[in-house]
């Protein structure tokens, strides 16, 4: 059985690194094609070998070019705990995610009312998936606390604008203090440099989730290593 998503993040942090979760995303609604001919599963392998504690795979197809097949390929080939990022709306989505071999599932506060979020949260735990509850405002972080979330994300961008807005790490700096006390906090999106990854950690994040900067780097491995050390002038 794979290590739990949250345990893997904790272990990387205890080893003295910034736990950087690479986001395997084929297309960015803002930047276009990120693959540029590369096989995303091979990239996932490369980043796993560079020391990633966990992976995120965007499965939404229309805007991000993802798929469940890709999730399954990556979850089964890397053996790293894998998060499915998509707009999850029903219990069937959870079962399918588990069947693909994922360990964690994204639940977005902005996309549904409290009652359905709560139901999905409880069902995810029953099925054996760790729910990452994603917030973009103070109110949503308070909601995450009411749900009892132990894994919380601050998306520095507004996902309802499909990543076309210019988020910055200052969203994490402003909001981190509202996260539930005992939750692991992940700062997501718009982190481009080691200094920004450091800033997220200084603000209270336990981990960062980074896609575009790694995909656009000339040397993905070196970029990954610089981000996880929080230093260097890569990117
Ligand atoms: O995060 C979401 O809510 C989400 C839901 C469905 C599809 C995609 C979604 N987000 C995309 C991302 O997670 C970003 O790619 C990720 O945070 C990395 O951002 P960046 O480093 O700016 O590419």
From TrEMBL:
One of its GO terms (biological process) is L-tryptophan biosynthetic process. PANTHER family: INDOLE-3-GLYCEROL-PHOSPHATE SYNTHASE, TRYPTOPHAN BIOSYNTHESIS PROTEIN. GO terms for molecular function: indole-3-glycerol-phosphate synthase activity; phosphoribosylanthranilate isomerase activity. Residues 3-222 form the Indole-3-glycerol phosphate synthase domain. Its EC number is 4.1.1.48. It comes from the Bacteria. It catalyses: 1-(2-carboxyphenylamino)-1-deoxy-D-ribulose 5-phosphate + H(+) = (1S,2R)-1-C-(indol-3-yl)glycerol 3-phosphate + CO2 + H2O. Keywords: Amino-acid biosynthesis, Aromatic amino acid biosynthesis, Decarboxylase, Lyase, Tryptophan biosynthesis. It holds the Pfam family IGPS. Pathway: Amino-acid biosynthesis; L-tryptophan biosynthesis; L-tryptophan from chorismate: step 4/5. InterPro entries: Aldolase_TIM, Indole-3-glycerol_P_synth, Indole-3-glycerol_P_synth_dom, RibuloseP-bd_barrel. Signal peptide: none annotated. This is indole-3-glycerol-phosphate synthase.
């Amino acid at each position: 059985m794979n290590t739990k998503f949250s345990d893997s993040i904790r272990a990387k942090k205890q080893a003295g690194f910034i736990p950087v979760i690479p986001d395997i995303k084929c297309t960015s609604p803002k930047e276009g094609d990120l693959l540029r001919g590369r096989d995303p599963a091979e990239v996932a392998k490369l980043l796993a070998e560079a020391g990633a504690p966990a992976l995120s795979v965007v499965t939404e197809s229309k805007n991000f070019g993802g798929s469940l097949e890709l999730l399954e390929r990556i979850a089964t080939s890397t053996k790293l705990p894998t998060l499915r990022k998509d707009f999850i709306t029903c219990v069937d989505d959870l079962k399918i995610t588990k069947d693909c071999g994922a360990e964690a599932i994204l639940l977005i506060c902005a996309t549904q009312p409290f009652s359905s979020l709560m139901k999905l949260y409880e069902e995810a735990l029953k099925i054996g998936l760790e729910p990452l509850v994603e917030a973009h405002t103070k109110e949503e972080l308070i909601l995450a606390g009411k749900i009892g979330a132990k894994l919380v994300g601050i998306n520095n961008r507004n996902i309802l604008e499909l990543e076309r807005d210019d988020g910055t790490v200052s969203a994490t700096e402003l909001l981190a203090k509202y996260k539930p006390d005992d939750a692991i906090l992940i700062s997501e999106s718009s982190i481009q440099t080691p200094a920004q990854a450091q800033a997220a950690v200084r603000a209270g994040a336990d981990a960062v989730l980074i896609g575009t900067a790694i995909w656009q780097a000339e040397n993905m491995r070196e970029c990954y290593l610089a981000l996880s050390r929080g230093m260097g002038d890569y990117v």
